[in-house]
Amino acid sequence: MKNKAILLGLLSIGFFATSCSSDDNEGETIIPLQGKYNLRQTGSIVGGQEVLVDAAANQAGCSTDYLDLRLSNAAVYGDYNGSNCALVETTGTYVRSHNDLTLTIGGVTTTSDIMNLTNKELKLKDKTTGMITVYSR
């Protein structure tokens, strides 16, 4: 009887440890994607190394361009430009599938790998061009 109780206890621990496996999310980050992200850097991978520079799309003297991903799966790209830093917002949608992000903004669709997603950063790599874009919250 004692042996059965010990065996049952060991099996229970085994099942618990198996059910708590860290690969249940298939590498997907659990940080929420929704939020407003300010454009910070762009670049690519050259010779196996990331080469990132300050985003040229951000016009000097203006607020930084942004990407706003809303809970409703709406996406808004905000672009400050011109001598008066006028804000132009272009709307669209987004879909997340594991670590892929598909954005359709202004009739243009792009799919990117989510390279990094934290409470402070979203880093995307375009699947077609290989361009890396870094946003901060």
Describe the structure.
With 137 residues, the protein is mostly beta strands. The chain has one helix and nine strands. It has one domain: Lipocalin (Beta Barrel), CATH 2.40.128.280. It has one helix at residues 2-19, and strands at residues 35-46, 49-54, 66-69, 74-81, 86-97, 100-105, 108-117, 121-126, 132-136. It has an eight-stranded antiparallel β-barrel with strand order 1-3-4-5-6-7-8-9. InterPro entries: Lipocalin-like (IPR024311).
Keywords:
single chain; 137 residues; Lipocalin; eight-stranded antiparallel β-barrel; 1 helix; globular; signal; Lipocalin-like; Lipocalin-like domain-containing protein
CATH architecture: Beta Barrel
- Give the topology string: H per helix, E per strand: HEEEEEEEEE
* Integer count of domains: 1
Please state the average pLDDT score. 85
Helix share bin: 10-25%
* Uncertain stretches of 5 or more adjacent residues: 1-25
Structural class: mainly beta
How many strands, which pairing sense, and closed or not: the largest β-sheet? 8 strands, antiparallel, barrel
What percentage of amino acids are in beta strands? over 45%
Number of strands: 9
What distance separates the N and C termini? 59 Å
Morphology call: globular
Give the helix tally: 1
Rounded to the nearest angstrom, the radius of gyration is: 21 Å
Q: What is the CATH fold-level name?
A: Lipocalin
- Going across the biggest sheet, name each strand in turn: 1-3-4-5-6-7-8-9
Domain Lipocalin-like: 61-124
Keywords: Signal
Protein name: Lipocalin-like domain-containing protein
Signal peptide: 1-22
